[in-house]
Each structure stands twice: as C-alpha cells, then as structure tokens.
Amino acid sequence: MTVSPADQATANDSTRKDSDRVIVFDTTMRDGEQSPGASMSLDEKLELAKILEEMRVDVIEAGFPIASNGDFEAVLKISEIVTESTVCGLARAGVADIERCAEAIRPAKRGRIHTFISTSPVHMKWKLQMEPEAVLDAVSRSVTHARNLCDDIEWSAEDATRTERDFLRRCVEAAIKAGATTINIPDTVGYTYPSEYAEIFRDLIENVPGADKVIFSTHCHNDLGLAVANSLSGVQGGARQVEVAVNGIGERAGNAALEEVVMALKVRGDRLPYFTGVDPQHITRASRYVSAITGFPVQFNKAIVGKNAFAHEAGIHQDGMLKNAETYEIMKPEDVGQGGSNLVMGKHSGRHAFREKLKALGYELGQNALNEAFQRFKDLADKKKHVFDDDLVALVDDALASGADRIQVKHLRVIAGTEGPQQAELTVAVDGVEKSGSATGDGPVDAVFNAIHEAVPHTAILRLFQVHAVTEGTDAQAQVSVRLEEDGHIATGQAADTDTLTASAKAYVNALNNLFARKEKSAPDAIASGF
Q1: In this structure, are 467 and 446 located in the same domain?
Q2: N or C: which end of the chain has fewer CB within 10 A?
C-alpha cells in the first residue's frame, strides 16, 4: 500500500522530539481584524475562539484590549471560555496598555501579555521619534512591568527585519533579561526573504545571552508573497512559534496563512522535521467561518482551502486521479475538512472522467449512447465556461427521456404576502389530460410544489431548490434548478422565466418528467403508479 507524504508525517509525529514542536499562534482576531472592513462582533469572535480551540491552536491572540471597549470585552470574554489554548492580548510599551491587557486576560487559565515597540531606524525616527537608547530603555521597562503582572510575556521588535542587527541583538537581550518568555521577530512590512530571515534567527540564537531560555517566533506579512516561505525558513533558523492567521488575512497583503504553514509542516516532514499540535480537519471549517464573518471571499485557487484546491479538470489529471489520487494530490482533502476531490467537467475533460462522472450521477450508458453523450458534452463545454452536474443530467436526460413532456404546466395562480398561509392553484396536462391541484404552503414556492404534488401524486423527495438571476435588474429571468430523488433515481429539472414562481413550477415539473422517464427506461411498469 502506498503511503502519502501527509500520512507518513502523521505516523512520524509520535516519534518527534519536543524541541521540534512548533507552537501555532493565531492572530486572526487581532492582526486579521486590522484588515480594512474585517471587523468582527463579540459573538463572532467567541465562536471563532471555540473553533480555534477545537483545532488545538496553542495561542489565540484575541485582540488589542486598550484599542476599544469592544476589543477589551472580546479578550475578557474569550479568556473566560477558553480553557485549553493560551489567550493573548496585545499591548504597546506603555504602562496603560500593559495594565489594560493584564486586566483583560486575568480570567484566562493560560494568559499572555504580548508587548511590542519598533526597533528599525525608519520607525524610530518617524513613528516613535525616539533615540535608540530610549527605545532600549522602553523595552526593559515594559517587559519588566508586564512580567510583574503575568508569567507568560511575549516581546516583539516591530519592523525587526529592517532593524540594524547589532541593535536588534541588544533589544532582544534586554527583553530576555527583563523576563520575556517568547521573542517575536516580525517581518512587519513583508520585506525579508527566506534565507535572510532564517539567518536573523540563527544570529540571535547564537549570539544573544539567554537565547536558549526563550522561544523565538516568526510573524510574517505577505507584501511580496513570501509570508509562508519566510515563516518556514524562520522555523529552520530556530524559531519554534509561528504567528499566522486563518486565510492569511491581516494588514495590507495579509499574514502567513495558518492552513498553509500547518499543512506544509505536515506534508513535508521529510525536509521540515517539525510538527504542530493542530488538528487540520477543522481547517476548512475555520476558513469558511472567517470568510463568512469578515465578508472576505477565499479565492478559488487558494492553497488548502480554496474551492479549486482539490478540483481537477484537465483530462490527463482526471485520468490519473481516477487511477490513483496521489498522482495529482499531495494530501487528502478529507485531512483538512474539504470533503473530497472534485473532478470538474469542462472542455479539457476526457472520456474516462466523463463516464465516471455519469456513473456518480446514476447513469450507466452503453458505448454508443456514451459516445453520443460525450460529443454533446464537448459541444456544450465549448460554449459554457462551467459545466455543472445539472448540465450533465439535462444533457443525458434529453437523450434518454423520450417522454420528457408528458407533464406540462398550463395554468398557475399564487396568492402570497405577509399574511399566510400562501396558496397556489395549478393546472397541468398529463399525457394530454388536464389535472388540477390546490394547496397551501410555508411560502409561495412550497405552496406551488404542494399543488403539483396534489395534481401529480408521487413519492419523490426534493433534494435541491436553487434560484439565480440570469441577468441583472428587476426584470431579470430567474433560472431555477430542482433536483428530485425517488427509489434511488435522481433527476434534475431546470426552467427560466421572469416570474420566479412560474420558473419554479416548470423546473419541478421538468424534474418530474425526467425522473419518470428514467424510471420508465429501467422499469416501464413503475411509472403508472406515479399518475
């Protein structure tokens, strides 16, 4: 049996040394929320904290307590509910910041104060307007004060990668002497590159007194698209904490993405002999939740969590996937909570993938029928950018369902509004004979479908109802898709109309026609009872 790299890495986790364990520090609720437009409510932060804790994230940076009453309350409430992860708050080097942070994390079973000050020449001159010696003194005073309030202190040298190396060493030494337990070396503006960043850590660890007593941390921004690469290089250079954010959100171009760093360490354990305690099966859930509450969509080709991360359209790729998934996938989609691989049907898809897709949709075609359907699929794929399952169902149904119009909608009248129940009256023609149905429902669409059921009795179960506008404006056509299932047979119907309810009725009837036609093809006597 072939073992995937990700599975092999998992098998090796138990044999790794504690010194190779990388602490995962999530800053989605602090640095991530600083993305313009990404503010989160208190309830949303509490739910995200629960997800991160279930994921076994080591440290949750819950906010910047002095920034606002809302941030303070979020850190306080998260400190009250989180019991496994460390809850961290951010503070500048001032006394007021540090004391406000200490107050916010006080309820935490494991609390951390994260204090920082800029150390680069450009920041000291233009932002702080302080001389280097004054900054050095502020490092000692702030860390000492924080350590008097909390045992777990992280100190960060803002803009560390543009800081003069000798001065950075002096600041780190001062922070360690004052009681810092974690030293963070941020690439605040995404300026460094991998080999340079790794060398900074090696230099500090080798040359700063007391460096062996603390944990060094990465915090990388993505301005040059190097945040994940730099974070991994920092680990190779000796860092044992990575500061990351779900979906990579954060200031400007964002932070190193939690999901990418975690899975890179897991999959490439052969070259990166380090590991985290994160349970990756919660990754997709966290990604989708953060996207939903911030309104920041995840790009389709985003690594690990993107819609297309485990999707394959090219015929060569699909053929390889059908033979062995490891031909084109270096990790299992199930490992990150993605559900499964997806063979996307398009103009590049081959006959093998097309046949397997039809089997998954419930179709077993003979060779001639398959050849004809495949040609029709190719013609359709040349016209449509995306060929969905419903398109394939409709394509095959057109060929198989000779009685696709046995039922036709003749008349529909719907009463809707704020005062229910909503009511629908409908007349259909079944093999030329008119039948009527009248029903109420929980909303006008439900009433329409109930009326159809009365006119054409059946036991099919509604599996999908989907509406989208074909064009823009109030006069746009509504395109409705309906999927029905009965006795193991699945059929989809589609219709478009400027009246959404009319389109819904026609789509449902179209699905019934396709369903009855398919059942008739497999067992002709089975349809009679449907009427």
Answers
A1: yes
A2: N
| Separation between Cα atoms, residue 274 and residue 295, nearest integer Å | 34
Return the HEC string of 134-187. Answer: HHHHHHHHHHHHHHHHCCCEEEEEECHHHCCHHHHHHHHHHHHHHCCCEEEEEE
Res 162: pLDDT: 97
Among 82-86, 108-112, 327-331, 336-340, name the one with the lowest average pLDDT. Answer: 327-331
- For the chain, what is the domain count? 3
Are residues 394 and 278 part of one domain?
no
Are residue 271 and residue 332 in the same domain, yes or no? no
Q: Which residues pair with 92 in a beta bridge?
A: 116
Together in a domain, 394 and 513: no
Q: Are residues 274 and 360 in the same domain?
A: no
Tell me: the pLDDT tens digits for 196-236?
999 999 999 999 999 999 999 999 999 999 999 999 999 99
Q: With CA atoms as reference, report the closest residue to 493 among 482, 479, 478.
A: 482
In this structure, the answer to whether residues 373 and 415 fall within a common structural domain is: no
**Residue 391, SS3?**
helix
Q: What pTM does this model have?
A: 0.67
**Model confidence band, residue 388 (pLDDT cutoffs 50, 70, 90):** low
- What's the pLDDT score for residue 402? 39
Burial class from Cβ neighbours inside 10 Å (0-12, 13-18, 19+) for residue 386 reads exposed
Place of tokens 């270096």: 330
Q: Are residues 53 and 156 in the same domain?
A: yes
Residue 300 lies in a domain: no
C-alpha torsion sign, points 210, 212, 213, 218:
positive
Query: Pairing mode, if any, of strands 182-187 and 478-486?
Result: unpaired
End of a domain among 363, 398, 433?
398
Residues 273 and 318 in one domain: no
Alpha-carbon distance of 181 to 146, in angstroms, equals: 11
Domain span including residue 362: 311-398
pLDDT at 3 over 70: no
Q: Model confidence at 422, in pLDDT bands (50, 70, 90)?
A: very high
List Cβ neighbours of 263 (8 Å cut-off, separation of 6 or more).
6, 280, 283, 303, 304, 331, 336
